[in-house]
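Here is an idea for our session: we take a single protein and study its fold together. Once you have written the record down, we can walk along the chain together.
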Amino acid sequence: MVTQFRYRVSISALAITLFGCSGDLYRVQDESLKMHTHKFQTFLQREQVEAAMHENQAIELIGLQLKGGRLPGTDTLKSADLERQSRLLDSVREQSALNWVSLAQYYASRQQYAAARALYQRVMQSYAKGGDRLYAEYAKQALADMDILALGRSAQEPPLASPTFSTSR
């Protein structure tokens, strides 16, 4: 009898917890965004680049779920929910763009220009529209600056000896 009581209390507590979490789905997703952002920054500081990339991809997945209306418990949306969804989607897109730029800066600071270039181009392609276009413009300028640095480095290096050709035989 005591076991049944404990079982019922456990089930009730679980149901209350689940109802409380699913009751404010956007708050849960916002907390998930913050958690992934913190993990991204921690991994990048530790130079665990692949793990940082996975965290940013998880952030992008939240955005895709929001855009596709695939969040659990979002069968019918109220007008207030649409506003919250839009704000959360904006936050997700901005954080994701910021993370990609940070990752590109990481590579550029380590003179891994090919990786930095690829990430800046990704930002330019993914965030060229809407409120996030500032990140695309920043990436475009960063690419131009990186090209200046790369050209400056190659100009400072001594030229390789090239074969000389004689016109006389």
About this structure: The chain is about 80% helix and 0% strand. The CA atoms of residues 92 and 111 lie 29 Å apart.
